[in-house]
Write a structure and sequence with these properties.
Organism: Alteromonas macleodii (Pseudoalteromonas macleodii)
Number of domains: 2
Order of helices and strands: EHEHEHEHEHEHHEHHEEEEEEEHH
Protein name: Oxidoreductase, NAD-binding Rossmann fold family protein
Oligomer: single chain
Number of helices: 11
Strand order of the largest sheet: 8-9-10-7-11-12-13-14
CATH class of the largest domain: Alpha Beta
Mean pLDDT: 97
Keywords: Signal
Distance between the termini: 45 Å
Radius of gyration: 20 Å
CATH topology of the largest domain: Dihydrodipicolinate Reductase, domain 2
GO molecular function, one term: nucleotide binding
CATH superfamily of the largest domain: Dihydrodipicolinate Reductase, domain 2
Number of strands: 14
Helix content: 25-40%
CATH architecture of the largest domain: 2-Layer Sandwich
Length: 320
């Protein structure tokens, strides 16, 4: 199985190293060679690197991993799909809907496996919480939820000028609403289909960037549960938490503390340990899942079609 990785920033490097850990060795690269990742030349030493996507695809890879800036995802994926590549695409799928209809058509036409990489669907606590909320006799009916993910953008990639990264540049598809879309995705994973959402986002000016650096999203689900999501590029120390309230108590998850518990109305706490967990475990699990899907022909946990629907809802809410 030959894999083409398009883009060698930090996430491309992570996937490359994880593929090696999983024993995958037939890996080629398409790169503009503009990566600022430390020791990138050393990491890629001896690898087959193409300056042209056309030339890279001529090598007939089975899988194309798309890890370049958001604004380039769809056009890269379309070319890869035309060559019959299964698609492993970094979230968000895009910053606009342009080209997604064609991409979905190509995926269906060529019977391709597609996966948009929401790693928190593979976090042990999120997976467990998805099952726990179904145990209504024990934990009650979910009423509402709130997620917060706040991180100081200048700390993300200390080796580069944060204002030059794709997350901070509108022409590359940046902005916190799209870049930090994870809570929106894992809430729908836990709570079900989103029926309505509204968005307020703004550029605060504190970071000197022209994209939104804070956003609030209100969600309604088809099961009448509501939720709120807050994301920003501004807080330090970082925060990533989730609260799910039921009529018998509440679940509280702290990503960085690696803690999940349920506290009932009598203040009794039940802890759900996640021992020996490392952040990279999610990324390895994603890769294993996708490779298994390609080998078996089974569709993935979150397809391009599903990501298109999610993005459409988000963009419609931004316009309204």
């Amino acid at each position: 199985m030959k894999i083409l990785i398009c883009g060698m920033g930090s996430i491309g490097v992570r996937h490359f190293r994880n593929l090696q850990t999983l024993g995958v060795t037939d890996i080629i690269f398409y790169s503009t060679r503009k990566s600022t990742f430390p020791q990138i030349e050393e990491i890629m030493h001896g690898a087959q690197v193409f300056d042209s996507l056309h030339d890279a695809l001529a090598e007939m890879p089975d899988i194309c991993m798309i890890t370049n800036p958001t604004s380039l995802h769809v056009r890269t994926a379309i070319e890869a799909a035309k060559h019959g590549c299964h698609l492993y695409i970094e979230k968000p799928i895009s910053h606009t809907l342009e080209g997604l209809e064609e991409l979905n058509r190509l995926i269906e036409m060529h019977n391709l496996i597609s996966f948009v990489t929401y790693q928190f669907r593979f976090h042990p606590h999120i997976k467990l919480l998805c099952e726990l909320v179904k145990q209504k006799d024990v934990y009650g009916d979910v009423i509402w939820a709130r997620a917060e993910w706040s991180e100081y953008l200048p700390d993300w990639h200390p080796w580069e000028d944060y204002t030059k990264g794709y997350s901070a540049r509108s022409e590359l598809g940046g902005g916190v609403l799209r870049t930090q879309i994870h809570p929106l995705n894992y809430l729908s994973f836990i709570l079900g289909e989103i029926s309505e959402l509204s968005v307020h986002c703004q550029a605060s000016g504190h970071l000197g960037i022209d994209v939104d650096d804070l956003a609030d999203i209100h969600l309604s689900f088809e099961n009448n549960v509501t939720a709120n999501v807050h994301v920003d590029y501004l807080q330090k120390p970082r925060v990533h938490t989730l609260t799910v309230v039921t009529n018998k108590g509440r679940f509280a998850w702290d990503c960085h503390a690696n803690e999940l518990f349920f506290i009932d109305h009598a203040a009794k706490k039940t802890h759900f340990p996640n021992e020996n967990f490392e952040r990279n475990d999610m990324f390895v699990s994603m890769l294993e899942h996708f490779l298994h899907c390609v080998e078996t022909g089974k569709q993935s946990a979150f397809t391009v079609k599903e990501a298109t629907s999610e993005l459409s809802k988000l963009l419609n809410a931004v316009k309204s």
